[in-house]
Design a protein that fits this description.
The protein is α/β, with parallel strands linked by helices. The chain has a single domain, classed as YqgF/RNase H-like domain (Nucleotidyltransferase, domain 5). The protein is built from 4 helices and 5 strands; from the N terminus they run βββαβαβαα. Strands 3-2-1-4-5 form a 5-stranded mixed sheet, with helices on both faces. Its EC number is 3.1.-.-. Could be a nuclease involved in processing of the 5'-end of pre-16S rRNA. One of its GO terms (molecular function) is hydrolase activity, acting on ester bonds. It comes from Candidatus Chazhemtobacterium aquaticus.
Length: 132
């Protein structure tokens, strides 16, 4: 059964989502750290726990996160023997917020889950565009 982990990488919070069998993405957790080395270790720990076949990173088209995501990708590729796919993440947070509002989730829920829901939207976009 293929397992995919996806990440909505931020400067302070990183949302994580998972998919089993490459069908449906679901939010998993949020990593709270501003330290790139700690984020790298958290991702390595998740890889050990869930043993994914592939990692998907959301990356914006421009801005400071573009370089941040690229640096993290390079560091992890030197450590892990997994493919890391970059997917355009522009509007993923806005989409996640809209989806939670449409689902009648309150402000507290949205604040606590926004990053992992954004990661799930990135992952679902990737899954929906897989060529089988």
């Amino acid at each position: 059964m293929p397992v995919t982990l996806a990440f909505d990488i931020g400067l302070a919070h990183t949302g994580v989502a998972i998919s089993y069998e490459n069908k449906i993405a679901e939010g998993l957790t949020t990593i709270h750290t501003q330290n790139l080395d700690l984020l790298q270790q958290e991702i390595i720990d998740l890889v050990k726990s869930y043993q994914p076949d592939i990692l998907v990173f959301g990356i914006p088209q421009k801005g400071p996160l573009t370089q941040h995501v690229g640096l993290l990708k390079n560091k992890l590729e030197a450590t892990l023997s997994l493919p890391i796919i970059l997917v355009n993440e522009d509007l993923s947070t806005r989409f996640a917020t809209r989806a939670m509002i449409d689902a009648n989730k309150g402000p507290r829920y949205r604040r606590l889950n926004n990053h992992q829901v954004a990661a799930a939207s990135i992952l679902q976009f990737y899954l929906d565009n897989l060529i089988e």
